[in-house]
């Protein structure tokens, strides 16, 4: 018996079948492309989030380090180790080099000044390393170090007036500005024998010098912001000195305090 020979599919059936397969493949490839596009977007967003988190944490670390370093109470520690004196109970009751000078003499005062100056250098230097040289972070760390010096967590948020630590920070940010500020301060102190007046005028000279540097030498504006805020802060911390200067009762360089 002869076998039935299968007839080839009609042309219309072949066309419909090919169209169906083609549509199926196009849908698959389209979905695959969408999935890959979504995964690529997700990976990019995740990487951006991770990097942002790392940057924020590193900046926060720089600020925290600046405060903890600035808050080290150099004057308090030197006075305690020198003659077991609580510097917070003598003179102006501040931990700065000037009060230590009047209370314990120039040797102890020199150690305190160098220690406070070094705190500013370390705080800004650490911020520069951690942030990769971000001027805004450096400026913020500089001011936070001054805040730490004035409101130290180690001695119940007491401290000094922020001048030496502020100058140390300024020496890293703009060495020339720091040099000019210190020169003006020393000149005023030599002429008037008022440490407070020299400190105030020296601090107030920093924004002027840095403003020129920003305009002429493209220094970061964040540095100028630090100089302005820092100068205002020094004026505020010296408000009692300013009152005594106006009354003519401010202590002069060389006056001693009984211990």
In short:
The chain contains ten helices and no strands. By secondary structure, it is mainly α.
How are the SSEs ordered, and which strands pair?
Elements: H1 11-70, H2 74-83, H3 97-104, H4 106-131, H5 135-150, H6 163-173, H7 175-192, H8 195-217, H9 221-237, H10 239-247
Helix pairs in contact: 1-4, 1-5, 2-4, 3-4, 4-5, 4-6, 5-6, 5-9, 6-7, 6-9, 7-8, 8-9
Polypeptide structure, described:
- The protein is mainly α and 259 residues long.
- The model has no long low-confidence stretch (mean pLDDT 87).
- It has helices at residues 11-70, 74-83, 97-104, 106-131, 135-150, 163-173, 175-192, 195-217, 221-237, 239-247.
- It has a domain at 174-253.
- The longest helix has 60 residues, at 11-70.
- Helix 6 (163-173) packs antiparallel against helix 7 (175-192) and helix 8 packs antiparallel against helix 9.
- It contains ten helices and no strands.
Largest sheet report:
none
Please compute the radius of gyration using only Cα atoms.
33 Å
Relative helix content = over 70%
Which segments are poorly predicted (pLDDT under 50) over 5 or more consecutive residues? none
User: What's the quaternary structure here?
Assistant: single chain
- What shape does the CA trace take? elongated
Span between termini: 133 Å
Mean pLDDT: 87
Helix and strand string, N-terminal first? Answer: HHHHHHHHHH
Task: Give me some keywords for this one.
mainly alpha, 259 residues, 10 helices, 76% helix
């Amino acid at each position: 018996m002869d076998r039935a020979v299968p007839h080839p599919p009609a042309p219309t059936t072949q066309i419909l079948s090919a169209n169906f397969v083609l549509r199926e493949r196009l849908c698959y490839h389209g979905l695959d492309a969408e999935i890959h596009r979504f995964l690529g977007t997700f990976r990019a967003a995740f990487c951006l989030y991770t990097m942002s988190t790392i940057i924020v944490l590193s900046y926060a670390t720089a600020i925290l380090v600046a405060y903890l370093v600035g808050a080290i109470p150099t004057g308090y520690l030197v006075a305690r180790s020198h003659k077991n004196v609580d510097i917070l109970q003598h003179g102006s009751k501040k931990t700065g080099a000037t009060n230590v000078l009047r209370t314990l003499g120039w040797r102890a005062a020199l150690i305190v000044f160098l220690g406070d100056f070094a705190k500013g250098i370390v705080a800004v230097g650490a911020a520069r390393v951690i942030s990769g040289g971000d001027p805004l972070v450096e400026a913020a760390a500089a001011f936070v170090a001054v805040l730490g010096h004035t409101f130290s967590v180690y001695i119940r948020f007491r401290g000094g007036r922020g001048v030496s630590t502020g100058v140390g920070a300024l020496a890293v940010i703009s060495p020339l500005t720091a040099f000019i500020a210190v020169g003006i301060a020393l000149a005023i102190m030599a002429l008037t024998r008022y440490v407070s007046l020299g400190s105030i005028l020296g601090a107030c000279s920093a924004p002027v010098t840095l403003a020129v540097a920003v305009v002429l030498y493209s220094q970061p504006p964040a540095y100028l912001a630090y100089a302005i805020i820092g100068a205002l802060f020094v004026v505020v911390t010296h408000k009692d000195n300013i009152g005594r200067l106006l009354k003519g009762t401010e202590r002069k360089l060389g006056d001693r305090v009984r211990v």
